[in-house]
Design brief:
10 helices; Multidrug-efflux Transporter Regulator, Chain: A, Domain 2; about 260 residues; single chain; about 0% strand; two-stranded antiparallel ribbon; mainly alpha
């Protein structure tokens, strides 16, 4: 059921686009864009064509902005549209899916952290294939690790790998340390780390034989997930309040209409 914007015949306090913009710290054009995108509930217009916003639009705007911080703009937009289409179960399904995805990331980070620490310490059990005793070509390393040779070249260009070069041919020659570094890059990339964040981890390991930078990187990633989790919690809380208000307004309005018809 489409949410109503007025609980009685007197109508709520009218708000201008600028009022909503100030409330959320955004531009008036963005408020209009949100209204056009279905992020805000249906907006009546004055006889002259101006939008007539109400407090409920402000609460919808704040709920969306909070959802976007934790769930991302795309999911937040889909959630608000579902609510305004009267499909609250669909909105909750989207919320549940995002929480499940975050839980998966947290579990993956835990497993990746343990594997990375093992690789960094040189634990042979952490390698899916034996550590090479002789240098490998770029193609052999790519096949061993299940990546494209072009990916290894990109990582080299970014300063993450520095394989030796064969005399005469100039071909790349990967030793055991290079393979270890490539394996760590793969796991860090799978955990969502950008290339610039990986370099300090490898530099620390090479120069000092320490995994302090690795532990710091994992802790930072964990902190990022925690911040997102808190933002999701805040967004879900505002959404709950908004959905409850919409249901109450709709119920009161329908009751008033039924009384008039009777």
């Amino acid at each position: 059921m489409t949410p109503r914007t007025t609980p009685d015949r007197r109508g709520p306090k009218a708000l201008r686009p600028v009022d909503l913009a100030r409330m959320a710290g955004v531009s008036t054009q963005l408020v209009r864009d949100y209204a056009d995108a279905g992020i805000l509930p249906p907006t009546p217009r004055t006889p002259s064509g101006y939008r007539r916003f109400a407090p409920v639009h402000g609460r919808a705007l704040l709920a969306y902005r909070a959802l976007a911080k934790g769930f991302g703009p795309e999911t937040a937009r889909a959630v608000m549209r579902a609510v305004h289409a009267g499909d609250v179960p669909e909105a909750l399904t989207l919320i549940d899916a995002a929480h499940a995805e975050l839980h998966g990331r947290r579990e993956a980070l835990r497993a990746t952290g343990a594997a990375l620490q093992a690789v960094a310490s040189g634990d042979p059990a952490a390698a899916e294939a034996p550590t090479p005793r002789t240098p490998l070509t770029v193609g052999e390393v790519a096949a061993r690790l299940g990546v494209r040779a072009s990916a290894l070249r990109v990582w080299e260009s970014a300063g993450l790998l520095a394989p030796a070069r064969e005399r005469g041919t100039g071909y790349r020659s990967y030793g055991a340390a290079d393979v270890r570094d490539a394996r760590m890059i793969i796991m860090l990339r799978q955990a969502g780390y950008p290339l610039p964040s990986i370099r300090p981890v490898l530099d620390d390991l090479r120069e000092a034989g320490s995994s302090e930078a690795l532990r710091a990187a994992l802790a930072q990633r964990q902190a990022d997930l925690t911040r997102r989790s808190r933002a999701m919690l805040e967004g879900a809380g505002l959404l709950h309040g908004y959905v409850a208000e919409v249901a109450e307004v709709t119920e009161v309005t329908e009751a008033a209409e039924a009384a008039e018809e009777g």
